[in-house]
Design a protein that fits this description.
Layout: H1 3-7, E1 11-16, H2 18-26, E2 40-42, H3 49-62, E3 66-72, H4 73-78, H5 80-85, E4 92-96, H6 109-118
Parallel strand pairs: 1-2, 1-3, 3-4
Keywords: Hydrogen ion transport, Ion transport, Membrane, Transport, Vacuole
Pfam families: ATP-synt_F
Protein name: V-type proton ATPase subunit F
Length: 120
């Protein structure tokens, strides 16, 4: 990937519950492009794993303007295979806690990769 393509990645996307997404939108991360594509996806009780996976795939493979994907850890657990298979540097995928689900470092794929590299 050229350095020019890295420069085009300027957005943070969010996949999470309504409280997490609302907080990130209030912080100024929300964006809707000229095609009506949003850089955020709200998970409700009716959201399927396939819908979460579709949003993740959109942000990590189709969109070339996303630099970081923030995903609630409970949502990452629902699509763990896709999280584990994402190995590109950009967009970076970071698992974050939600209001109702505390962060568990043992489930974090990035932390597991780091521990494997350093031999823990």
């Amino acid at each position: 990937m050229s350095s020019q393509s890295y420069r085009e990645r300027t957005l943070v996307s969010v996949i999470g519950d309504d409280d997490t997404v609302t907080g990130m939108l209030l912080a100024g991360t929300g964006q809707v492009n000229e095609n009506g594509d949003k850089n955020f996806f709200i998970i409700t009780q009716k959201t399927t794993d396939e819908q979460i996976a579709e949003a993740f795939d959109d942000y990590t493979t189709k969109r070339k303007d996303i630099a970081i994907v923030l995903i609630n850890q409970f949502a990452a657990e629902r699509i763990r295979d896709r999280i584990e298979n994402h190995v590109q540097a950009f967009p970076a995928v970071l698992e974050i806690p939600s209001k109702d689900d505390p962060y568990d470092p043992e489930k974090d794929s990035i932390l597991r990769r780091v521990r494997k590299i350093i031999g823990e």
